[in-house]
Design brief:
alpha+beta, 4-stranded antiparallel β-sheet, 7 helices, binds uridine-5'-diphosphate, binds magnesium ion, kinase, ATP-binding, nucleoside diphosphate kinase activity
């Protein structure tokens, strides 16, 4: 059985996607989820939670030396977030494409940040940037029993190498 963090490089690749506190406040939960659903990815975990400072710090541990780290942790723990795990072929890389560039000013229209945000400090969403961070982030926010492994009959209409 595949680990609950997924198997990068396969159809069971999983990525951690979060709607940050500003995305929740702005009423963009449904709009952001729709991008991933409509694309064809499979939602395998979802919950709303209010991050503690400690959990926000462990989530962003690799950015601890950055000058914006303190403000970033305060931002991420400033209200409830929607934490999700999405599964599918190339979910990590393609998830980042759906989000758009980190700075919404550089994010192209058609992406979530390009369409819905203006400022790098309020860029409404998070997505894992690689296989290692996906594993770390999924385990940081979810317990194994909170992630559902389920078949979807339409998968054959979404993925094929023909
Ligand atoms: N961030 C910021 N100022 C910066 C760079 C990043 O406030 O100059 C914030 C921004 O919210 C970003 C988060 O820190 O989403 C994490 O940075 P990262 O470089 O990992 O960007 P991401 O992976 O979210 O695109
Ligand atoms: Mg990042």
């Amino acid at each position: 059985k595949a680990p609950f963090t997924g198997v990068p490089g396969t159809d069971k690749e999983r990525t951690f996607i979060a709607i940050k506190p500003d995305g929740v406040q702005r009423g963009l939960i449904a709009a952001i989820i729709a991008r991933f659903e409509n694309k064809g990815f499979k939602l395998v975990a979802l919950k709303m939670l209010w991050p503690t400072k400690e959990k926000a710090e462990s989530h962003y541990a690799d950015l601890a030396t950055k000058p914006f780290f303190k403000g970033l942790v305060a931002y991420f723990s400033s209200g409830p977030i929607v934490a999700m795990v999405w599964e599918g072929k190339d979910a990590i890389k393609t998830g980042r494409v759906l989000l758009g560039a980190t700075n919404p000013a550089a994010a192209v229209p058609g992406t979530i940040r390009g369409d819905l945000a203006i400022s790098v400090g309020r860029n409404i969403c998070h997505g894992s940037d690689g296989p290692e961070s996906a594993v770390h982030e999924i385990a940081n926010w979810f317990a194994p029993e909170e992630v559902s492994d389920y078949p979807r009959s339409l998968d054959e209409w979404i993925v094929s190498d023909n």
